[in-house]
Amino acid sequence: MKKWAQDHSDAKISAGQAGTGAGFQKFIAGDIDFADASRPIKDEEKQKLQDKNIKYKEFKIAQDGVTVAVNKENDFVDELDKQQLKAIYSGKAKTWKDVNSKWPDKKINAVSPKLKSWYL
């Protein structure tokens, strides 16, 4: 990044904590020269870029990893697959029994930051 900044001294670089959507808004507004993101550019964002005649190049350089931890008091969950996680975080599964019929009928207390930013 330092080398790129030296070669492009007119570029605007910000290392803020705005989030993907806010970062794309700043990019579309012309406030920043590039934005990193945890997801691909949405169709409506692409349309706004096109409307403003902003040329861009989108490329994937990495993929987020997500860690899910289960309370140590929970002695019945050994693993959760993608579908089970979707059921839990979408609110479809309210109890552990909703996730797996062999598990107890105990309420699930799932905590995570900004569920809307997850792509399960």
UniProtKB/TrEMBL annotation:
Pfam families: PBP_like_2. Residues 5-117 form the PBP domain. Signal peptide: none annotated. It is found in: Cell membrane. The keyword Nucleus does not apply. Keywords: Lipoprotein, Palmitate, Phosphate transport, Signal, Transport. One of its GO terms (biological process) is phosphate ion transport. Its main location: membrane. It is a lipid-anchor. It comes from the Bacteria. PANTHER family: PERIPLASMIC PHOSPHATE BINDING COMPONENT OF PHOSPHATE ABC TRANSPORTER, PHOSPHATE-BINDING PROTEIN PSTS. The complex is composed of two ATP-binding proteins (PstB), two transmembrane proteins (PstC and PstA) and a solute-binding protein (PstS). Belongs to the PstS family. Part of the ABC transporter complex PstSACB involved in phosphate import. This is Phosphate-binding lipoprotein. The gene is pstS_4.
